[in-house]
Specification:
It is built from nine helices and eight strands. Strands 3-4-2-5-1-6-7-8 form an eight-stranded mixed sheet, with helices on both faces. Helix content is about 40%, strand content about 15%. The longest helix has 24 residues, at about 30-50. The protein is an alpha/beta fold.
Length: about 290
């Protein structure tokens, strides 16, 4: 059945590739963009997932500039693996963290076939952005950096994506592509920026595509009643927008150590969620 389904989807993708919308009429530009997005969704996620239902669950971690995505990723594995920063786009190349036993699932072109694979620490890195490179700033990245980490539970992988509202056009384009490849999207926002317009536009798109979404509200002031009040307001906003969220995680404002790391307790609930999900085959299947 799966083979027949993927054959139908392959034929549909070929139809979309040959579709021409040459007339400069109202809605043509949007239709062309939606056609491109559908092709990306088919090749990056839908077809490979149907062909490999037992592949690790891909969690794409996305959100706004300065929301603390990379800091959370580093905390989840217990040491710095991806750069963080709030001023300049720092994720010029997306980073995928996987358990060493799951490496074979990601070294090939099963998902995100347009991105070359580079292993962390690889001495010969032809895809590394140079000083004058426009990768991330103007052009989207052309490679995906793979990190094998024992701390990532087997059966699940974490992908640190660029900012969805980045000032860099290449990063914005890549972030949306990566989100289309997600089995689960972990949306990271902050107590100060959770009402920003751009993330809600992307969240609505995720809801329309029936993507499973978890939300982290980061950097919540550590004052009595603040977390509950903000969580209630965010849940009300999600409901008004018709966005169903599986879980909402609240991370208090916490001082970082000398390496820029959060204490393990700050991400314990999120870490437990991923560990339980990796161990729950039926739960992963539902997502």
């Amino acid at each position: 059945m799966t083979t027949r389904t993927t054959q139908v989807l392959d034929a549909f993708a070929e139809h979309l590739r040959t579709l021409e919308l040459p007339l400069p009429v109202d809605g043509a530009e949007q239709a062309r963009a939606e056609t491109g997005a559908a092709l990306s969704q088919l090749s990056d996620h839908v077809i490979p997932r149907l062909e490999s239902l037992d592949a690790p669950l891909l969690v794409v971690i996305g959100g706004s500039t300065g929301a603390g995505k990379s800091t959370l990723v580093n905390a989840l594995v217990g040491h710095p693996v991806t750069r963080s920063g709030a001023i300049r786009p720092t994720t010029r190349r997306p980073v995928l963290l996987h358990h060493p036993a799951d490496e074979a699932w990601f070294t090939g072109t099963r998902i995100l076939p347009g991105l070359a694979r580079v292993h962390a620490g690889q001495s010969d890195d032809p895809e590394a952005p140079g000083a004058a490179d426009t990768t991330g700033d103007v052009d989207p990245a052309t490679s995906l950096e793979l990190h094998a980490q024992e701390q990532v539970p087997q059966g699940l992988a974490l992908l640190d994506a660029p900012d969805i509202d980045s000032v860099a056009a290449g990063n914005r384009e890549l972030a949306r592509q990566l989100l289309r490849a997600a089995d689960l999207w972990l949306f990271v926002t902050t107590a100060n920026r959770y009402a920003d317009a751009v993330p809600w536009e992307v969240l609505r798109t995720a809801a329309e595509r029936d993507v499973t979404v978890d939300v982290v509200m980061n950097r919540i002031p550590d004052r009595e009643g603040v977390a509950a009040e903000l969580a209630e307001d965010l849940r009300a906003m999600l409901e008004r927008h018709g966005i169903e969220v599986q879980q909402l995680f609240l991370v208090p404002e916490t001082e970082l150590d000398a390496e820029g790391m959060l204490p393990p307790a700050a991400v314990a609930e999120l870490s437990d969620r991923f560990t339980a999900l990796a161990a729950d085959e039926s739960g992963r299947g539902r997502i």
